[in-house]
Design brief:
- The chain has 184 residues and is an alpha/beta fold.
- The strands form three sheets. The protein has a four-stranded mixed β-sheet with strand order 4-3-2-5, with no helix packed on it.
- It is 26% helix and 16% strand.
- A hairpin with a 2-residue loop joins strand 3 and strand 4.
- It contains five helices and eight strands.
């Protein structure tokens, strides 16, 4: 399965689930991977906005994540540009439609919130697109970091603007030497 629109499954509310999680290191800090019924359903950074409580992640168990970890390692090594993983994304119909569009933004490119809203046939919904983008449960793999403001500037990112800037620079072929700690 790929992370194109046809590959993501959407869980029905009230459905019983079995969750597992593991934590992996990355150039952007530890990443917590969560699986629902054996399918990747979460990728959370430390101090991420909208990060669910730890107790919802289930028992620690690295087994469901072998392929996700392999692909993340290849991505961070600059060897992978498109993830090929089954996903289980839990959200509203509008959120899911935004997450599908995020998966269509090519590696190294960006789109504005307004452009995504227009693509969805809702040209006045850029704020709603931004809110849905911020609730993306599988960051990096569903590339919400590729969405920018109408002026081309960086705007909110659940993992922090520094990480967003670093991810975009990395994908554009720039060096990522870590956070810029300069004041100006």
């Amino acid at each position: 399965m790929t992370t194109t629109p046809a590959s993501a499954t959407f869980r029905r509310p009230g459905t019983a689930v079995h969750r597992r999680h593991t934590v992996v290191d990355s150039p952007y800090g530890p990443l917590t991977l969560v699986a629902t019924d054996g399918v990747l359903s979460g990728l959370y950074m430390t101090e991420q906005r909208h990060r669910p409580p730890e107790e919802t992640f289930g028992e620690p168990d690295p087994r469901p994540f072998t392929e996700a970890i392999r692909q993340l390692d290849a991505y961070f090594a600059g060897e992978l540009r498109e993830f090929d993983l089954p996903l289980c994304l839990d959200g509203t119909p509008f959120q899911r439609s935004v997450w599908v569009q995020l998966q269509l933004i090519p590696y190294g490119e960006t789109r504005s919130y307004g452009e995504l809203a227009e693509t969805l046939g809702k040209p006045g919904a850029s704020r709603a697109v931004g809110l849905a983008n911020g609730k993306n449960p599988v960051g990096i793999i569903v590339p919400c970091h590729r969405v920018i403001g109408a002026s081309g500037g960086l705007t909110g990112y659940g993992g922090g603007l520094d990480r967003k800037q670093r991810l975009l620079a990395f994908e554009k072929g720039g060096r990522d030497d870590g956070p810029d700690l300069s004041l100006f």
